[in-house]
Amino acid sequence: MVISGGGFGDFRSLRPARGVEMIFVNFKTYQQGTGAKASKLAEICEKVSKKTGETVILVAQASDIFRLSRAVSLPVWAQDVDEINYGSHTGWILPEAIKDSGAKGAILNHSEKRRSPEAVGKIVRRLKDLNLKSLLCCQSIDEGQKLVKFQPDFLAYEPAELIGSCEVSVASAKPETIRNFVLKFSRLPVVVGAGIHSPEDVKLSLRLGAKGILVATDVVLARNPQKELAELAQAFG
Ligand code: G3P
Questions:
Q1: Who's near 89: CB < 8 A, 6+ residues apart?
Q2: Ligand 1 centroid to 57 CA: how many Å?
Q3: Is there an atom of ligand 1 within 6 Å of 216 CB?
């Protein structure tokens, strides 16, 4: 696919920024990413991470954090968490509980689990107090502007309409927005997600200044997740 350079010239001539580089694999609530199957998938991710030397972070359901933390040495993050403290909060997810289960961080405000900026701020504070990392998902630069003040560890750009597509990715459809997002929030590592499915998606995202990717469908639902993840991971090389 030919990608327009827009106001930034030819994106292919940009060099990827070196530094923290990572792959967040979001297990969502896919059957292949739940329970015993989640452990199998986590082992596959660990194999790829060891082989390629790339950092792979497993983004798991709260109920699987303990299991995955036992099964592999990769960092496990929660898909969401609440701002509550110990007490009477039936059904909520306590930050202390995910930490105790082995989580190293949490993503927040995913398109499938939106939060108000106010709630995001409160939760990020709770995570910081517990030395847990945070990644805030944004659907746009405007949303990033509302959330960056909470000083998360990562910001993610994920256009909701491309999530789940294995044909059109954020990299191929929105290169200029990725570049603008990265430039706007240059103090934070930016990762990108939605429809990422090829080594070209990874290479272009890195050239545009992203430090990593968030991926689900291409890996979790793949017939051969090891092959798919390895292809993406090798593109970081
Ligand atoms: O959190 C990652 C996710 O929303 C991207 O999903 O299926 O487009 O890779 P997918």
A1: 82
A2: 14
A3: yes
Closest atom of ligand 1 to 216 CA is 9
> What's the mean pLDDT when you consider all of the chain?
93
**Residue 138 bridge partners (DSSP):** 157
Instruction: Give the model's confidence band at 230: pLDDT under 50 very low, under 70 low, under 90 confident, else very high.
Output: very high
**Ligand 1 atom closest to Cα of 111?**
4
The token pair at 186 is 């240059």
Q: Which amino acid is at 234?
A: Q
Q: From the CB of 164, is ligand 1 less than 6 Å away?
A: yes
Banded pLDDT at 21 (limits 50, 70, 90):
confident
Q: Which of 23, 27, 28, 154 to mutate to test the pocket of ligand 1 (most atoms within 8 A of CB)?
A: 28
Question: First CA to last CA across the chain, in angstroms?
Answer: 22
Q: Which two tokens stand for residue 106?
A: 């949490």
Please, how many CA atoms are within 13 Å of residue 145, restricted to the half-sphere of its CB? 6
Determine whether domain 21-234 maps to CATH 3.90.1570.30: no
Q: Which residues are catalytic?
A: 110, 158
User: Sign of dihedral through CA atoms 123, 128, 130, 131?
Assistant: positive
- Span 84-124, pLDDT tens digits: 999 999 999 999 999 999 999 999 999 999 999 999 999 99
Percent of the chain with pLDDT over 90: 89
The DSSP result for 196-222, as a single string, is: --SHHHHHHHHHTT--EEEE-HHHHT-
